[in-house]
Amino acid sequence: MVSYRFGFLRQKAAYSFVGGKIVPVPEFEVNKKSIASWAHRDGFLYPPIGWSEEEDGKPVPNSKRPVHLHRLPASHQVDIERNASAEDRRRTDANFIIQLIAYLRGTWLQFEDWFFDARVPLDGKHNICHASKTAEHFISHAYQEWQKWPENAKPRFVTTLWMLNRAPSYQWDWEHFVVEYMVLDACWRSAEDLKLVCGRVAHKDRINRLCEIFNIQQNVDLVAEIVRLRNDLFHESLWDKCQPGTASSAGSFHAPLNLRRLNQRLILALLDYKNDYMRSCWWSMGTCIFGIP
């Protein structure tokens, strides 16, 4: 068995799943109070302020700035029954599990001794509600399904989950859109790894193709708008026909959010967890029930 501490998950929850368990760390309440003392009211935890120092320890004038890398204290520990190989420096199995929890909770989690490199959404970036037993069923199913995947596909999918969980850390709508489209492309690659799609398919047709394969609801007009925004941004550096960072339409404001909700359903489809939520409307902003298939 291998064990790793990670954070920060604000809910003092424990989960048992096939192949392991997750439990709160003994100092959970202390760490939770520490997080609450410097969490922003917008639901994010921002990097602390750092500065350069002279050799004698004196601060360098005009060097204060938000640090690029920062860590969070642990909230939970994950225990994996399967021993990791000495070459697995990325802790692939354990990372997969904590990214699944982050996916469910709409947050971004990291091992205690690993760094974050942006603001951290503490929760609320996934418009679902679920019971603890559902979470345990989902994690068990997903872990067993993922273990059947080709070896080179498994760490790639963990990175896909990590990027999906990290995406809300970007503050501009066009930046968020870029990362969500990266996740979409990575989901397509995973579908190729699993031989669920084959042949060359143009980017403009991939969303509709994935929705067709996985029986996810389709919205042809909305997909066409996402494709237009993607092409203009990637090929002409334009966001909704304007310079990125300037005012844009309501449609472009909602585009990264719609794409995110689609990606959240594609994750389930790739893990063969085809519940009612996966088949629900991904362009709706309402909260959905996340149940067992």
Question: Mind sketching the topology for me?
Answer:
Elements: E1 2-7, E2 15-17, E3 20-24, H1 28-38, E4 44-45, E5 49-50, E6 65-66, E7 76-80, H2 92-105, E8 110-111, E9 120-121, E10 128-129, H3 132-147, H4 153-166, H5 173-193, H6 203-214, H7 220-236, H8 250-270, E11 288-289
Parallel strand pairs: 10-11
Antiparallel strand pairs: 1-7, 1-8, 2-3, 3-7, 4-9, 5-6
Helix pairs in contact: 2-3, 2-4, 4-5, 5-8, 6-7, 7-8
Describe the structure.
The protein folds into two domains: 1-125, no CATH class; 170-293, no CATH class. It has helices at 28-38, 92-105, 132-147, 153-166, 173-193, 203-214, 220-236, 250-270, and strands at residues 2-7, 15-17, 20-24, 44-45, 49-50, 65-66, 76-80, 110-111, 120-121, 128-129, 288-289. The chain has 293 residues and is α+β, with helices and mostly antiparallel strands. Strand 2 and strand 3 (20-24) form a beta hairpin. The mean pLDDT is 95. It is built from eight helices and eleven strands. It is globular, with a radius of gyration of 20 Å. The protein has a five-stranded antiparallel beta sheet. A two-stranded antiparallel sheet has the order 4-9. A two-stranded antiparallel sheet has the order 5-6. 43% of the residues lie in helices and 11% in strands. Helix 2 runs antiparallel to helix 3 (132-147), helix 6 runs antiparallel to helix 7 and helix 7 (220-236) packs across helix 8.
